[in-house]
Amino acid sequence: MNVADGVVGVLLAGGRSSRMGGGDKCLRPLGGEPILTRIIGCLRPQVSDIVINANGDASRFAPFALPVVPDSIAGFSGPLAGVHAGLEWVRANRPDVGHAVTVATDTPFFPADLVRRFLAEARDGSTFLVARSEAGTHPVIGLWPVELAATLKVSLDQGHRKVSAWVKDHGAVEVPFPPVEINGSLIDPFFNINKPEDLAAAEALLKASAP
Question: Thinking of the domain 3-209, which architecture would CATH place it in?
Answer without folding.
Answer: Alpha-Beta Complex (3.90)
